[in-house]
Amino acid sequence: EFGVFVEIPGYRRHGLVHVSQISNYEVEKVEDVVTRGENVWVKVIGHTDDGKVQLSMKYADQTTGEDLDVNQVNLFASLSKRKPAPREHKPLELGAVYKTTCPKCGGTGHLASECYSFGNPG
């Protein structure tokens, strides 16, 4: 199960409360928390490019409808746990010295492809 689809009054589409946004504790079966036709309070936490509305029940007080995460601090913390920040890939740099002998110059510590002796030995 993905979660709960919620009808939003005055909006032409339903919104989805993902199972991770239903409660502060792990929900194994959605039916244990929400029943079909039940009125629930939700907070809009995002939308997709194709217009789907992403909702949360755990950041809306289910008695009063009060926003429990006004500044989105808990929301951003929970999202950052699920999606690691993209890392910049940098080339690997090794500080090791090659234990080789260059066939071009006879020197050590570099490969023939890195040799700048232009054929002059040693």
Oligomer: single chain
Helix amount: under 10%
Q: How far apart lie the N and C ends?
A: 70 Å
Let me know the number of strands: 4
User: Low-confidence spans: pLDDT under 50, at least 5 residues?
Assistant: none
Question: How would you characterize this protein structure?
Answer:
- It is a single chain.
- With 122 residues, the protein is mostly beta strands.
- Helices cover 8% and strands 16% of the residues.
- The chain contains one helix and four strands.
- It has one helix at 73-82, and strands at residues 3-7, 14-18, 43-47, 53-56.
- The protein has a four-stranded mixed beta sheet, with no helix packed on it.
- The longest helix has 10 residues, at 73-82.
- It starts with a strand and ends in a 40-residue tail after the last helix.
- 12% of the residues are buried.
Brief rundown of the structure:
The protein has 122 residues and is mainly beta.
